[in-house]
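Q:
My hope is that you can spare some time for a protein that puzzles me. I hope you can help me see how the letters and the tokens relate. Thank you; the sequence and its tokens follow:
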Amino acid sequence: MQITKVIYGVLTLLPFIPIYIYGKRGYNYMEREIKIYWLFLMFAFVYQIGLSLAAYNHLHNIFFIVLFQVIEYSVLSILFYMWNPNKFLRFFILFFLVFNLISWMYFYIGENINYSISIDKHLRNFILIPLSFFTTYKFAISSERDLLNDTKFWILSGVLINIALCSFVLVLRSYSLTNSEVHNLSEGLLVFVNLVTYILFIKGFLCLQAKSKYSGSSLS
């Protein structure tokens, strides 16, 4: 079991290395929204290292876990706000962002943070799944660029897959508290989903590298 946890930890952290390398090389060619998300991914990398060290030392801090979830939701909300010009949709995004922040603070102040983990996380997924699908769909049908060579398309696809499949795994985990086999299965599925997500992100940042090489050759 301990070896499995180590393997899961390595598989979770390893993909961040190419994301950092290719993202850094193509940083000057990123759109503003992609820059924001790349910086968040770097923050997530540092957070995962801290979380792994805390788990190794048998330290469990629910506050930081929930805080990261809130930061992640806030970043995604801001990006979807920037990607969607529709005024009603923007109001909808901001409304639920503010609602979620108030909810988190309310349950934290009331020292009922466990409730915030279970309820708020499912609520965020309920909002983000259709929002990410709609944003990806609108971009795919309106873009005049080659989608397979477009960084934004791969990032949106990765976000959509991650949110949709992780929400399913989270539901599975909620029923695995008393079943170790189901719990282990959900942990493995979560690592697999993250790997697929990171592969899509890496592909997206590789598109930036191709763009930077093209720009460099045209200037020479």
Q: What stands out?
A: Residues 2-211 form one domain. Residues 55 and 163 are 24 Å apart (CA to CA). The chain has eight helices and no strands. The two ends are 55 Å apart (CA to CA).
